[in-house]
Amino acid sequence: MGSPKKKLQGLVAATITPMTEHGEINFSVIGQYVDYLVEEQGVKNIFVNGTTGEGLSLSVSERRQVAEAWVAKGRNKLDQVVIHVGALSLKDSQELAQHAAEIGADGIAVIAPFFLKPWNKDALINFLKEVAAAAPTLPFYYYHIPALTGVKIRAEELLDGIQDKIPTFQGLKFSDTDLLDFGQCVDQNRQQQFAFLFGVDEQLLSALVMGATGAVGSTYNYMGKKTNQMLEAFERKDFSSALNHQFCIQRFINFVLKLGFGVSQTKAIMTLVSGIPVGPPRPPLQKASREFIDDAKAKLKSLDFLSSTDLKDGNLEPCS
Ligand SMILES: CC(=O)N[C@H](C=O)[C@@H](O)[C@H](O)[C@H](O)CO
Ligand SMILES: CC(=O)C(=O)O
After folding, report:
1. Which range is the signal sequence, renumbered to this chain (predicted)?
2. S-S: 45 plus which of 71, 80, 88, 304, CB 3.0-4.6 Å?
3. Catalytic residue, candidates 36, 141, 142, 143
């Protein structure tokens, strides 16, 4: 794909890994999934094998095959395909980084190792550096998700001087609600051309104000179009419409968060909205309950995220 690369911006869908009812990867729907993102959601970047993709629940061999499938199906359709290559084993992570470069991915991302953990910035940087070095031609993104990794080193601290250690460092995927930390990452690195990608979909508008250059998230799989409308309103400085769009998105996410929302539920919602059967999650996750699916469906319909023929007007709360 060659450099210099275009900066990663706009929405990035954290892809689901489609599975069969028996828990095997269902490669057959990936082509259809790419077309759906581009044509129906207006999303042209993807983040593969991350949290939503159950990357850490796949074998290294499966992760390689999944990455290959997305790169192949995305060719000439997607702008960028970033592969998450984080793992507990440095060796696995390096193997996946090198593989991502070989297959022509556009970037790699890495979370902090989360069982035997790095306890300070230097330890974490050292791990990341060793992974990045296995793919010296690929843009490198640090994936900050402290609530899941338990590694609470502030992103601002990590970014200080990071390019001296990791020359391919290109940006941050920030999945946390600490907007002080996020804002300071932006503020202290203004002279760099880093991508600052926010990862809490229900709070994206606040992060845009703080300088986010894009967003990576699970909900862009099925609410990409709506979120793009928010980004466009923000671009044209129409903040009251941008806020209306954010509130609309929040109504849905708030509703499902109260029911219990995670990767299993994301898979069920995606199947419902897109019609693409992405299947159940792999253990230890368990598939979403029938009750969750029915409730989420009714909410999607009332918000007009899903076409509805059986709802009375009185039950509609469509977003402007
Ligand atoms: C923990 C997690 O999966 N976070 C996702 C990405 O970082 C988000 O896209 C959330 O799923 C979304 O913001 C809903 O809370
Ligand atoms: C949301 C996200 O970025 C992930 O699933 O990894």
Report:
1. none
2. 80
3. 143
